[in-house]
Design a protein that fits this description.
The complex is a heterodimer. Chain A is α+β, with helices and mostly antiparallel strands. In chain A, 65% of the residues lie in helices and 12% in strands. Among the domains of chain A are: 165 residues, no CATH class; 102 residues. In chain A, the strands form two sheets. Chain A has a five-stranded antiparallel β-sheet, with no helix packed on it. In chain A, β3 and β4 form a beta hairpin. The two termini of chain A are 51 Å apart. In chain B, the strands form two sheets. Chain B has a five-stranded mixed β-sheet. The termini of chain B are far apart. Classes of the chains: A alpha+beta, B alpha/beta. At the A-B interface, α11, α12 and α13 of A face α1 of B.
């Protein structure tokens, strides 16, 4: 019965979201206040219904209801509790339901936390979000119903894909979806503004915290995915330029551009049409990502459901959503351009440069991702675009971006004199070059990339520190003064410093890591960078739903015991899929990584992979700093104050636009 | 204001490509092994590990090699098609049991019927790498000279057997008898 309740709740949610999409919007255009006021309650009811539906599916997982096809395909009685909860989004149908749930959650949040936004504007925003909901709920119900039953009921489920039985991956999709879908809020604000023709600094102010929040989630989500790939896939890489990874990176890049142009729109009222376009792009790329993953248009390690029928549906949805919004943009945007002026040397120029570079970067990634498809469509043959392409095109774009970022964060709005900054910047540049000379020497080897990367990382960190210093120039640094500084400034500094940390991590890991594939017999010792790895043999162990061969490697450094690493080769009983569970001794300055390979012959010898990865943690530390920076921006006092001010203003002039 | 319409125009082009892309199969990768000699292996037979088989042993006749495993749902799906193909006695089918367990494989053949003249076991999947196998089921056609002539990826259906496999087999047999 429970699955039917879930199904029924989903159908009801579709009906409610249809009402929520049409009625308030129509009311806002025809001036009916009662219709407009329907926006918030209907959004909240819809969110409740989707949550009920999602809860029912989770319940079916918890009680092992294998009469539900989806549960039978992705769960098993031996599956541990946490993976029964995360298994809900372990395959196509459930992950779509999670998408819908995430969208409802955002809609609910907007309906509750947007007190300051005028009723009409809010109604339009919620209507646009409800339109997206209609599309996704239709998609779930028509092509991928997770509540479908099977008869006869199987006694045992086919188990969750072993790759997904991991804590990192359990939380990676929800985080990523919070980011992806979060851009729907920015998108809806942009569309609502286009409909209403009202694009002012207040509008940018309402939209900015939502965008920052979505961006922060996306950053953390991508970081988690990369971290998961590193320790779970067993070959120690952290980014593969897989189409699905690119699909998450592209909205992130555009989202980053959007964060910056929004700052300019909010503070200075410039780039408004451009900001709208970026908001549309960010969400379009999220949808495109969903299309690429779900339709099987591109091959990928993530492609676990490819079905042309679903592909056609998403493509249709894509055309409707993105096509309509771009048409709306082409129609309305020409009236919106009325930019404030700024001089060549100003923060606006810095942001403009940043935006141009980011958009070019995104276009490059998009081209690399879709190029195989385009060639295939034109019958020009099959090929795949791999990491060499991306690595080659990224460096010439990343270098000016990092340099510009350092200068941009110390520039003033509207007009600035380079003369004011030249002296300090020159000192910082010299220090950075010194870092570029010293760090590779300390790591034991000169490479062009390492010199460049270390210098750039140092440049970003030092200029960020300089921005903080400038902020306290007149007041002197004290805790009280630090509290006076807006949270969004700290957010910016933390995120920029995160980029610096990230650059250093990527540079040092890729140039100085040591990777060894060895044949080891028990008792054999191998030395990497001063660490002695002693192979102590393999024992058999049994897990809840797998059997494993566990290899033990003892690591010492000089006389000091460092770690005993247990790497496993797991065989999951139901899916009979072999999995490598790497053993890692993490550290701020280096990771020791051991992965057990195959047994070699009868002498007890095994293939063992030993990696020494310096500074690899800095990659995710950087992502974490960026994410926290994003969250800090949201907590800025000015968004709360602004909403209260508008609230008072609106109370004085109720429903101005409706009656107008 | 033409420039505001540029995004929507670009998007229209993109949609065109995506639509065409939907009807293409990215998995259909042309096998680099076609037209090349069959990669060598020397594998034990299922149920009788004392005996072994290499592609050399099949020389002089047109034969099929079907990569399968008991863990593979697509293999179950194509099994009846394989049985029917075997009954037509067009060419011997060699089963290539891929990363599987002997007991399960034997009981599978006992319960579902055995379309194979002989089955080799590739327990660790090493030999499959040489054949460019990247998922079961896959079916190869090898000519009398030992050259790989055709590769089918995914489950066979009666239609794909009739339209794709049988014409190739008959052509190769005709060439061999010349």
């Amino acid at each position: 019965m429970i699955p039917e309740i879930g199904h029924f709740a989903l159908v009801l949610a579709l009906c409610v979201s249809f009402v929520s999409a049409v009625v308030p919007l129509w009311g806002s255009l025809s001036g009916r206040a009662a219709w407009v006021s329907l926006a918030q309650p209907s959004a909240q009811i819809q969110a409740l219904l989707v949550a009920i539906s999602y809860g029912c599916l989770t319940y079916s997982f918890l009680v092992h209801d294998f009469s539900v096809l989806y549960v039978a395909n992705t769960s098993n009685t031996e599956l541990p509790l946490i993976y029964r909860i995360s298994g809900v989004w372990g395959a196509h149908e459930g992950s779509l339901l999670l998408w819908a749930l995430t969208l409802s959650t955002w809609t609910f949040a907007v309906s509750v936390f947007s007190r300051g936004v005028p009723t009409v504007m809010l109604a339009r925003v919620l209507s646009v979000m409800a339109f997206i909901s209609v599309g996704f709920l239709l998609f779930v119900l028509l092509t991928s119903n997770p509540f479908e039953r099977i008869f006869p009921v199987p006694l045992e489920g086919r188990d969750l894909n072993p790759l997904l039985q991991d804590f990192g991956l359990a939380i990676h999709p929800p985080m990523l979806y919070m980011g992806y879908v979060g851009f729907a809020v920015a998108f809806s604000f942009a569309i609502a503004a286009l409909i209403g023709g009202r694009l002012d600094m207040a509008w940018a102010r309402w939209m900015r915290p939502w965008t920052a929040l979505a961006w922060a989630f996306l950053t953390i989500g991508i970081g988690l995915g990369s971290w998961w790939a590193y320790y779970e896939l067993g070959w120690g890489g952290w980014w593969f330029w897989d189409p699905v990874e690119n699909a998450s990176l592209m909205p992130w890049i555009i989202g980053t551009a959007l964060m910056h142009s929004l700052a300019a729109s909010e503070k200075r009222g410039v780039f408004k049409a451009w900001t709208v376009l970026l908001a549309v792009f960010a969400f379009s790329l999220s949808l495109l990502g969903t299309f690429l993953v779900r339709s099987g248009v591109l091959t990928s390690v993530h492609a676990f459901a490819s079905d042309p029928e679903r592909g056609v549906f998403i493509l249709g949805f894509l055309v409707a959503t993105i096509g309509c919004s771009l048409l709306l943009y082409a129609w309305r945007a020409p009236r919106l351009t009325r930019s404030g002026s700024f001089s060549l040397v100003s923060r606006e120029s810095g942001i403009l440069l940043n935006n141009v570079l980011l958009v070019v970067l995104c276009a490059t990634v998009l081209l690399g991702t879709l190029y195989p498809l385009v060639l295939d469509s034109l019958n020009l043959g099959k090929l795949s675009v791999g990491p060499p392409y991306f690595n080659t095109v990224l460096i010439p774009l990343g270098v000016p971006m990092a340099i510009a970022m350092g200068i941009g964060s110390v520039l003033r709005w509207k007009r600035d004199q380079l003369g004011r900054l030249v002296k300090t910047l020159a000192v910082i540049a010299i220090c950075s070059l010194l870092a570029g000379a010293i760090v590779p020497w300390m790591m034991g080897g000169y490479y062009w990339g390492a010199v460049l990367g270390s210098a750039l990382g140092a440049w970003v960190l030092l200029t960020t520190a300089h921005a903080v210093q400038l902020r306290f120039k007149n007041k002197g640094f004290s805790l009280a003064a630090a509290r006076q500084v807006p949270a969004s400034f700290w957010g910016m500094c933390l995120a920029h410093a995160g980029i610096g940390v990230f650059i250093i991590g990527v540079t040092l890991t890729s140039h100085y890591n040591v990777e060894k594939d060895l044949r080891m017999v028990p008792g054999e010792v191998f030395e990497v960078s001063g660490y002695r790895f002693e192979f102590r043999g393999v024992t058999e162990v049994a897990g809840p739903n797998y059997d494993a061969s566990r290899g033990v490697v003892n690591v010492t450094y000089g006389d000091r015991q460092v770690a005993e690493l247990h790497s496993e080769k797991r065989r999951y009983r139901v899916q009979t899929m072999p999995m490598t569970e790497a053993a890692i001794d993490p550290g701020l300055f280096r990771d020791l990584y051991v992965a057990l390979g195959e047994p070699l012959g009868d002498s007890g010898a095994w293939a063992v992979r030993i990696y020494y990865k310096p500074f690899v943690r800095w990659i995710w530390l950087g992502c974490l700093m960026m994410g926290i920076g994003g969250f800090l921006t949201v907590m800025d006092r000015r968004y709360k104050l602004a909403s209260q001010r508008v609230l008072r203003a609106e109370a004085a002039r109720p429903n101005e636009e409706v009656t107008a | 204001m033409i420039r505001f319409a540029i995004p929507v125009a670009l998007f229209a082009v993109l949609v065109g490509f995506l639509f065409v892309g939907l009807n293409l199969d990215p998995r259909e990768v042309p096998s680099p092994f076609i037209g090349k000699p069959a990669p060598a292996f020397d594998l034990p037979l299922l149920g009788d590990n004392e005996k072994r088989l290499t592609p050399e042993d099949m020389k002089g006749q047109v034969w099929l090699m079907n990569v399968w495993a008991t863990w593979c749902p697509g293999c179950r799906q194509e099994h009846d098609t394989l049985l029917r193909l075997d009954q037509r006695n067009l060419a011997p089918i060699v089963g290539f049991d891929y990363k599987d367990e002997s007991d399960k494989a034997l009981s599978w053949l006992q319960t579902l019927g055995n379309p194979y003249q002989v089955v080799v076991e590739d327990v660790d999947g090493r030999a499959a790498i040489d054949w460019g196998v990247y998922g079961a089921p896959e079916t190869f056609i090898i000519d009398a000279e030992g050259i790989v002539q055709y590769k089918h990826i995914g489950p066979l259906t009666d239609a794909s057997v009739a339209n794709d496999l049988v014409p190739v087999i008959e052509r190769l047999k005709a060439e061999a008898s010349l």
